Amino acid sequence: MERDESDPAVRNDEARVPFDVVPNPDTQVDQGVDEKAVRHSRDSDIDRPARSQSRDEESGITAVGEDTNEKEFEVTWDGDEDPMNPRSMAHARKWVTIIILSASSLCVTCASAMYTSTYAQLEKEFHCSRIVATLGLSLFVIGLGLGPMVMSPLSEFYGRRPIYIASYAFFLIWLIPCAVAPNIATMLVARFLDGLSGSAFLSVAGGTVGDLFPKAQLSLPMAFYTAAPFVGPEIGPIVGGFINYNTSWRWTFYVLLIWSGIMLAAIVFLVPETYHPVLLRRKAIKLRKDTGNLAWRAPIENMNKSVFRTVAWSCVRPFQLLFLEPMCLNLCILSAILLGILYLFFGAFPLVFENNHGFVLWQTGLTFLGIFVGMVTGVSCDPIWRKNYNRLVTNNGGVSEPEFRLPPTILGAILVPIGLFGE
């Protein structure tokens, strides 16, 4: 489902709610970079005269660049083939990056649901009720929801790669107290911090896909990445069921530690920086060094907003939209209901299939295969809805309307209640 680039919301790189909204291909494409503006070659840059100077005869002070247009020295890409432009990377390297980020997102969302298969052993070892044990799942999801409000704006200043590395490193670190927790309190605190740390991959990684691919090539890689956060909650109980049936609940977190350790190493060594404004800043620094001309500036270097103000606004903005935009509120309520139903199954399926049908733990995990197939089918239908959206835009004279994206939501809102009758 493509977004109209004229829509200001398309360029908004703020926090998103995990799982409930499919990352849109155009959400973070271009990143405020006008790629139609092609700079002269490096040779012509070197030959360009330094900033003009004029003498103020009255004050005797030299004014630098008074008659120079700042836009003339604004650093942009030399097209998609610019060697510093992430879209000029080899196709194979782009896909390696997408696969690593998708697998990392899958690990985070699997971690949320694998925990549900540990309930019985946690209750026995920590002498707690099922409701208290369930808090470990709830707190993890709360962390996933709150984290993007901080992670997304930070990526606008420091780039995506530092956020990935820091976020995943802390995600791995907070898995350790989960694995060795001596009591339920330690488990609950660690679960919240673990979800908070891993949330970057549900809010920032979608932008990397847009950084790497132009709009015409975006459909397949975005669909591939989009599937990861959606199928993770279904894979978690399946894998966790086999682990907890054959060994201790602590091995659930040992497996996650091994998986996340591999992914962190892959991120550090194989995932490059792709955020266009940050890369343009690097290009500007290189131009200033090579030419000796300090006039070269990247757009991000001219920003007058502070990190604190940006993060604070990111924390306020979601609530402002909820209370002041009825359409946004309605869609968020629908998403919350769908996400709530999904996580309700994690508690309901063991009760239904173990108590009523005599399933063992690994068999109960397999009951989530139906939801898994449904998720994959839904994501696979994205090209159909994309084609329908393009048709509606064409019939409307090339002008996009927000309502053109509602058909899949309307159909889903009808099918979900029908599907619940079969549960």
UniProtKB/TrEMBL annotation:
GO cellular component: plasma membrane
PROSITE patterns the UniProt entry points to: MFS, SUGAR_TRANSPORT_1
Keyword field: Membrane, Transmembrane, Transmembrane helix
InterPro entries documented for this protein: MFS, MFS_dom, MFS_trans_sf, Sugar_transporter_CS
GO terms, biological process: export across plasma membrane; xenobiotic transport
Compartment(s) where it occurs, according to its Swiss-Prot or TrEMBL record: Membrane
Biased composition annotated in UniProt, kind: Basic and acidic residues: 1-17, 33-58
Bilayer topology term: Multi-pass membrane protein
Domain Major facilitator superfamily (MFS) profile residues, every copy: 97-423
Principal place of residence: membrane
Residues that span the membrane, as ranges: 95-116, 131-151, 163-182, 251-272, 327-353, 359-381
Lineage: superkingdom: Eukaryota
GO molecular function: transmembrane transporter activity
Pfam families referenced in this protein's UniProt entry, alphabetically: MFS_1
Location of region: Disordered: 1-65
Family: Belongs to the major facilitator superfamily.
Protein's UniProt name: MFS general substrate transporter
Gene source species: Aureobasidium pullulans (Black yeast)
